[in-house]
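Lab meeting tomorrow. Please check the following:
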Amino acid sequence: MNTITHCTVEYITSNKTLETVSLKNTDRLLYIYNYKGIHYRVFTELLSLIRFFESGIEPKHTFLTDEEVDDFILSYRFSQ
């Protein structure tokens, strides 16, 4: 099970945020785009996040509640 060691939140607009999540025992980050608290997109790579903003390419991991996002973060395993 993962442990979040650090999380920053940047407000893009009043109803759109971008969270950067750091996990214990890894130097990798997760990026969470939150749209109005009703749609969450989780990016495991910065390049995927950039592609989403530039071209609208959707990530592999999307969720409808923050509980689903939390469960995903706690159990996610980065590829080697």
